[in-house]
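Example for tutorial group B:
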């Protein structure tokens, strides 16, 4: 099986079982695992470039799609943070059996933090790289910002549909997503993943305000945490200067390859 072809990992039991598409290439430590954002997948430009650079340097690389995303099974509207975290943990436990750097984008940054906290004692979390991280976004960036009529719609009909700037299909926010998110909040106290953390945040991000990244930093340990604010950066941070100039060099902080600004 080539790296171009996903393999499938079964997660859950009974009616909750879903097939998770995974692309994994074995290699040396530390490995890299990519966690995508809400309605994003492992074939996005940042995920592909990170995988290419780490793979060419001989490191283990793992990418996958949450249920309801990309090549994985399941329905998107059934998704919750707990459900997607369960899938992430299953992939991590199956494929990341050596020290691994967890890279999370947007919602993937929240799930990356939850994964690191839940697997802290295994010794396999080598570091975190968070791109426009959105911890607690269901509560802080959605529910608290929704007007009362939208909240009422979610509470009575169970869902709210909003056009997406990034895809033809709209975003669906369900009551289950909001209520489950409250079980996974991390910004209410200190957050110690037990590893170095690198954060990149665009200051022109209209989805995750840069102040949200500052709030996260205030919850992290004082040692070995850096936040890079990119003044003209948007939410995606997918420009060449973002990926080749910042994200890929950050891999070098964890001993992954010899990476120059040329990618």
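The residue assignment follows.
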């Amino acid at each position: 099986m080539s790296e171009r072809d996903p393999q499938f990992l079964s997660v859950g039991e009974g009616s909750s079982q879903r097939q998770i598409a995974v692309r994994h290439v074995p290699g040396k430590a530390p490995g890299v695992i990519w966690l995508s954002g809400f309605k994003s997948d492992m074939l996005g430009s940042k995920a592909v470039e990170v995988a290419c650079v780490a793979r060419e340097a001989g490191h283990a690389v793992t990418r996958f799609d949450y249920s309801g995303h990309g090549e994985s099974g399941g329905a998107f509207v059934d998704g919750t943070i707990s459900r997607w975290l369960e899938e992430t943990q299953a992939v991590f436990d199956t494929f990341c059996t050596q020290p691994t750097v967890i890279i999370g984008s947007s919602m993937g940054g929240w799930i990356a933090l939850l994964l690191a906290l839940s697997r802290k004692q295994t010794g396999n979390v080598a570091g975190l790289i968070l791109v426009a991280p959105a911890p607690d976004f269901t509560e802080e960036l959605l529910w608290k910002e929704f007007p009362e009529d939208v909240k009422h719609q979610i509470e009575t009909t169970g869902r709210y549909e909003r056009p997406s700037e990034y895809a033809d299909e709209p975003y669906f926010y369900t009551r289950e997503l909001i209520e489950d998110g409250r079980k996974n909040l991390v910004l209410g106290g200190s957050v110690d993943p037990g590893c170095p953390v690198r954060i990149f945040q665009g200051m022109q991000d209209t989805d995750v305000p840069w102040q949200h990244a500052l709030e996260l930093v205030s919850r992290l340990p004082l040692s070995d945490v850096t936040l890079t604010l990119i003044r003209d950066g948007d939410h995606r941070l997918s420009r060449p200067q973002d990926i080749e100039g910042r994200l890929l060099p950050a891999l070098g902080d964890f001993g992954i390859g010899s990476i120059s600004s040329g990618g």
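The longest strand covers residues 18-25. Compare this with the pattern of hydrophobic and polar residues in the output above.
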